[in-house]
Amino acid sequence: MSEKTAENTARRLLPLLVILMVAVVGAFTLRDHLSFEALAANRETLTSFRDNNYLLALLSFMAVYIVIVAFSLPGATIATLTGGFLFATFPGAFFNITAATIGAVIIFLAAKWGLGEKLAAKMENSDGAVKKIKDGIDENQWSMLFLIRLVPAVPFFLANLIPALVGVSLWRFTISTFIGIIPGGIVYTSVGAGLGEVFDRGETPNLGIIFEPHILLPVLGLCALAALPILLKKLSKKA
Fold first, then answer.
1. Residue 225: predicted pLDDT
2. Domain ranges, ordered by start, for the chain
3. pLDDT: which is higher, 136 or 214
């Protein structure tokens, strides 16, 4: 590898390396500051600031949310709850989903620029199982993108990286992310909207609500709907 090539590679990897370094540091230093307890302790300060400076509070909140997602910092769920607590279910859900999508796009672009394009090209030019996997993803990109967003078990961080590493286009990633996180975003924002009563009772919110039957079953139904085109393609090929 020539010196110029090595320099270009290092430059391309720099944004992704910065994100990884900040994520590691944040995991050890910010966990106690981005928590439900911290939100409960500062709720009056936050609501007062919102009431007196609504636009500034909104922009500050979204900026913090974007940074949390872009750098994979702990506290994304708390940020979503905070959006509901400060801005109600609507328009709080829209603010949460928009900020999460922007943050996801940032880490997607960093991964795509640093590794994705080269890795996707190598997979495209390879043979055997690797090429089949790449072709399978390419043939069902919309369905696969919606599935990894809708399935609660897929970590948000991985759902941002995988599309970048298999050559998904930016616009497909952005649209599928925004639409795919709407169900979960609305659920957790609505939980945040009811935090005032939870604080008054001295309780903690039910963050496992997404796995309760009345929430999980509709989400699984959406997953099945997203997977339907993949199933139909397989059936048509067999036929």
1. 81
2. 3-238
3. 214
